[in-house]
């Protein structure tokens, strides 16, 4: 039984950018969505998220309207291409190295993100991470709806979902390491035993200085 687990946020932690935003832009580029209100909703989401006042259910109700009549199998085909073309170039090399270090030590790795789970799990698979949690959406007639199922992996919801998962796995690790860029993840920071901030926002940086958390600066490899 593992005495340690390593938890990673996804957006702006393992990759440079927000996968939710990038996914909307991908659907827009492919002309799968054509209504500019979806782009506007994403811009408002980022601004509310950064301000710590995002209403996640309200955002997802709008954001997922574009997919509500598209079979999840088709969404999965687009996601495969999305991860290959848009996400892989944004993986931080240092993130891959850190994941490899934990793998070599047989330490379980979990990605927990406030992005919808079908996007998170596809990206996690590309990192070779088997356990990934995002916001689960209710499905209807084989399509994703805009309604959240269960506890959303957002703010303190990340801690709740992690606790549920640990209980299901019968794990009670003595040491939890957590990596994030955002002050929205402070509940998880206080739950973890060891915190690494990755290119943190100002509020998180100030908390990191107060609590002595290690601050990492991860960059993309320069284009040759």
UniProtKB/TrEMBL annotation:
The keyword Transcription does not apply. Coiled coil: none annotated. SUPFAM superfamilies: HAD-like. GO terms for molecular function: acyltransferase activity; hydrolase activity; metal ion binding. It holds the Pfam family HAD. InterPro entries: HAD-like_SerB, HAD-like_sf, HAD_hydro_SerB1, HAD_sf. Keywords: Acyltransferase, Hydrolase, Magnesium, Metal-binding, Transferase. This is Bifunctional L-3-phosphoserine phosphatase/1-acyl-sn-glycerol-3-phosphate acyltransferase. It comes from Xenorhabdus innexi. The lineage of its organism: Bacteria, Pseudomonadati, Pseudomonadota, Gammaproteobacteria, Enterobacterales.
